[in-house]
Amino acid sequence: MAVKPPLILFSTPILLLLSVTIRIQGHDFAIEEATIENIQGAFAENKLTSLQLVDIYLQRIENLNPLLRGVLEINPDARVQAEEADRERRSDTHGRRSFMHGIPVLFKDTIATNDKMNTTAGSYALLGSVVARDAVIVEKLRKVGAVILGKASLTEWYSVRAIGKIPNGWSARGGQAQNPYVAGADPCGSSSGSAISVAANMVSVSVGSETKGSIICPADYNSVVGIKPTVGLTSRAGVIPISSRQDTIGPIARTVSDAVHLLDAIVGFDPRDSEATSEAAKFIPAAGYKQFLIKDGIRGKRLGIVRHPFLDSLNASNVTTFESHLDILRAGGATIVDDFEIANIDIISDSAKSGEMMLLLAEFKSSVNDYLKELKVSAVKSLADIIKFNNNNPDLEKLQEYGQDTFLESEKTSGIGEKERKAAENLEKLSQDGIEKVMKDYKLDALVAPGISLSMTVLAIGGYPGITVPAGYEGNGMPFGICFGGLKGSEPKLIELAYGFEQATRLRKPPFSEPLDITREFIFAAV
């Protein structure tokens, strides 16, 4: 069995390198909040190299990760890849390069990398397993010269091991990841580490996955941008699966433009995920998505506001803030179509009533068994094996505390039968009669909602896209976002809206400005 490096968790937090400006070769370069375009400009002006950038991020990870736990594992070849990117840039033989060339990227620890790193879904059950090949999105990023920096932490097995019991951001391998804004606050999941690491400037951008809120929610809770693409716009081949109907892979970044640059690099048809990607490939514009980064992208859009149930749980202050954001959208030239209902929204919002959860349990067992069978080396070859591993290692996996109730429910399923097919048909009809009908009837370009409720409901069951953008902070400093969602293939309009809103508001701020901000708060919270 191949020997792989252990989990990267540093025993002693140093917390020395949080300065905003780095002096490199006589030049000042601000690493905190640096965008991909800033970085590429610094590369072009010889103020910065990819290797220097990687070293800066590695130092920040060493300083911050013992507290935040956003990173599971560092790629031991990251510096080698950065040096290669620098050589290519110096040689100037490749002509115009991708915006992602030389840019460090973290991947959620469910995205296969055929290298010295593990792919484990945060569980010891897959530690030491060997994948047959890179996930397709990893292949794409390697080809354009991105630097594979490491693996981000997550809610173990997407929380599917024990839904409602495993805390967001916790995994056996990584421990409890922390929201960098408020000590002890929910980092959300399951792409928690991907969002935390970007928010805390430990990496330029990251890749997450979403089945039901797993990009939008952690991005929202950690004040970063998350794009949940139309299902099939990005390949899922080589990614530990839950559901081929709902799984999608997407970018997490500090700005809309950075998220779009990453999105442009990972979209496209893939024969290994042909059914979904062939259907979605027709939506991809020939010149990519960068062209939709338009400052006045709000102008002329018709936006639908579904108040029930998306505003029902908000406190008065957050409702007031959301109303002020609607005013910003109006001022930007949007028409607001307010206070209508989506048919059967209460059923859509209840995964038991809609049949969504029952179907997901059956899909998970079938799809994860297929994934495990493709591994070159693995101690577990089926969901039943994982359950047995957990039973044999209760302390390692905190089995007594969190259990594996959902795994056991999934293991009882028998594939996709008549009951499951009817559930899938019902979800499709709920989508057709719901979001598709209101958007067509009201001639809407997008739906707008505060927080995460849109992504957890209508966007999830139909495979629709969404983008969340930082929209402010509560009194205790906890971030919240605004979500734009639409029909399949509506990414161009959503990007215009998200970018336009971001440029009009510029509400994101980094989680801490000096070492004591994070040291004092997090050390005392841990005592």
The CATH superfamily is identified as Amidase signature (AS) domain
Radius of gyration: 22 Å
Shape: globular
Fraction of residues in H or I helices: 25-40%
Determine the strand fraction and express it as a percent band.
5-15%
> Which spans of ≥5 residues are poorly predicted at pLDDT below 50?
1-20, 515-520, 522-527
Output the structural class: alpha/beta
- Largest beta-sheet characterization: 11 strands, mixed
Number of domains: 1
Summarize the structure.
With 527 residues, the chain is α/β, with parallel strands linked by helices. It is 39% helix and 13% strand. It contains 20 helices and 15 strands.
Describe this structure in words.
This protein is an alpha/beta fold and 527 residues long. The chain has a single domain, classed as Amidase signature (AS) domain (Amidase signature (AS) enzymes), CATH 3.90.1300.10. Strand 4, helix 4 and strand 5 (147-152) form a beta-alpha-beta unit. The chain has helices at 36-44, 50-68, 78-91, 136-143, 192-199, 216-221, 256-266, 274-281, 316-331, 345-348, 351-354, 356-373, 383-392, 399-402, 405-411, 418-441, 453-456, 458-462, 491-505, 515-526; strands at 21-24, 27-30, 71-74, 104-108, 147-152, 170-171, 175-176, 205-210, 225-228, 248-253, 302-305, 335-338, 446-450, 466-473, 479-485. Residues 1-20, 515-520 and 522-527 have low confidence and may be disordered. The chain contains 20 helices and 15 strands.
